[in-house]
Amino acid sequence: MNYRSFLIYGLALCFSGILIGQNDYVMQREQMIKTQLQARGIKDPLTLYSMTNVPRHEFVPKNLVEHAYRDGALPIGSDQTISQPYIVAFMTETLKLKSTDRVLEIGTGSGYQAAVLGKIVDSVYTIEIIKDLAMSAKSRLKNLGYQNVVVKWGDGYHGWPEKAPFDAIMVTAGAEAIPQPLLDQLKDGGHMVIPVGPSDNVTYLVSVLKKKDRIITKELFPVRFVPFTRNE
Questions:
Q1: Which tens digits make up the pLDDT trace of 56-88?
Q2: Catalytic positions (predicted)?
Q3: How many other CB atoms sit within 10 Å of the CB of residue 177?
């Protein structure tokens, strides 16, 4: 085998390895959809489509890639986590999203939830208070081609008034109460999902519907989230 043939053979093996690796991730996502989501009642076609097509392994630290599709949360640094796939799907489904929606997310983290939302809606505006996470998520989402997701470093309590009103708002950190600025920035008829509860007690996932200036809330089930962080 001459050098040119050897080089072509080596490239073919490398490319074959990449394809096998990617196919393995596809299979893991399909298994995740069946056993973790559909088996627990997730039915929304848009949510299932998005969870199937967002590569979760791209949003976890390299040393945890092999665990990316497991049934649980994973650390992403700075004492933050990427949520369990079921929770990501449930919160997404709860918002009753449409393809034309403009969505605000509070708590970007690694950018995974924003990417899931971005596969469904027209535009996503996501805020992260930890600068390193905000910058890395912004770069990651850009490199993966999520052009309809905009990341901002800042205090999510105040929302993003310049981009309001929003059809839906998702908060991925436990708050002691629903921030009033977020309610103000939610459209009439819009939905919000947010973990709410005392910092030293049980936190419940809460769905919020804004209807003709009335706020209708419903406790869904107890959850565990990192605390809602504020600028001092």
A1: 999 999 999 999 999 999 999 999 999 999 999
A2: 83
A3: 10
